[in-house]
Design goal:
The chain is α/β, with parallel strands linked by helices and 270 residues long. Helices cover 44% and strands 12% of the residues. The chain has one domain: Collagenase (Catalytic Domain), CATH 3.40.390. The chain has ten helices and six strands. Strands 1-2-6-5 form a four-stranded mixed sheet. α1 crosses α2, α7 crosses α8 and α8 crosses α9. This is Zinc-dependent peptidase. InterPro entries: MetalloPept_cat_dom_sf, MtfA_fam, MtfA_N. GO terms for molecular function: aminopeptidase activity; metallopeptidase activity.
């Protein structure tokens, strides 16, 4: 059998596929998924498992359970997007703790994006995760595992996946490739206005308690932070930044708030 031949075959039916992933599906992040969505997510997870190279550093042993958790979480943002969204990069590198990288980070971006100036700082930084262009995703495994246990708006896996989606048009700048029917001008207006609001709130000490101030560091980080929070704390985002929430609904083509309010609960996947 040639490598990836199984991807051209129909995926296993739900009664076979879902039990293999049930331990992950039972996590809070996936609450409210109906049976069909859970099955499609597991198909994407299987695809992710097969197409990525998995590397543990500093003696970290990468187990099947770890891979399943990471694969399913990483696949949630693309549940209703192009299944090829992750095909331009191959690897997931896991560290046993936060790691140090030399990072060139823009303070803000060009005036053509969100009204900033091109100031770049380069320094060694301790990271929980990093997405590298067309290269791998780097993750601190303890922090990735912790993120799966609670919905607090901090999920390093979702954060780095948002960066990867942002990079599909070349660079992480808070302006990912939009779908047909989405308005570029509206996207820019909403994100620019909310980014400025967040920076003002941060200066005044008035940021919502659930929002990581890291969102104010650059448009790219604003998109990534709000994306992870969109999936973990959708009611908070929709309440405090309703126009921004609606843009995220349009971009990800799913509405976590509606899912959690709907009639289907996690037990419907059993």
């Amino acid at each position: 059998m040639k490598l990836f031949d199984w991807l051209r075959r129909p995926p296993p039916p739900p009664e076979i596929l879902l039990p293999q992933w049930q331990a992950v599906l039972d996590l809070p992040l996936f609450a409210g998924l109906n049976r069909d969505d859970a099955w499609r997510l597991c198909v994407l997870g299987e695809r992710f498992l097969s197409r990525k190279q998995w590397v543990g550093t500093e003696g970290l042993l990468v187990t099947d359970a770890m891979r399943r958790l990471l694969a399913l979480t990483a696949s949630l943002p693309i549940l209703n997007l192009n299944e090829d969204s992750f095909d331009d990069w191959r690897g997931v590198i896991l560290y046993p703790a936060p790691f140090v990288v030399r990072d060139a980070r823009p303070e803000m971006l060009s005036v053509t994006q969100w009204g900033g100036v091109g100031v770049v700082h380069e320094e060694d930084q301790i990271q929980l995760g990093q997405a590298r262009g067309d290269g791998p995703i780097l993750l601190s495994w303890p922090d990735a595992e912790r993120a799966s246990q609670q919905l607090d708006g901090f999920n390093v896996i979702l954060h780095e996946i948002a960066h990867k989606l942002d990079m599909l048009n070349g660079v992480a700048d808070g302006f990912p490739p939009l779908h047909r029917g989405m308005q570029r001008l509206r996207w820019t207006e909403v994100w620019q206005a909310n980014y400025r609001l967040m920076r003002w709130q941060a200066r005044m000490g008035q940021l919502p308690h659930w929002l990581d101030a890291y969102a104010c560091s650059s448009p790219a980080e604003c998109f990534a932070v709000l994306s992870e929070t969109f999936f973990e704390l959708p009611f908070a985002v929709a309440t405090d930044y309703p126009a921004l929430y609606q843009q995220l609904v349009l971009f990800y083509r799913q509405d976590p708030r509606a899912r959690l309010m709907g009639p289907h609960r996690a037990e419907s996947t059993a």
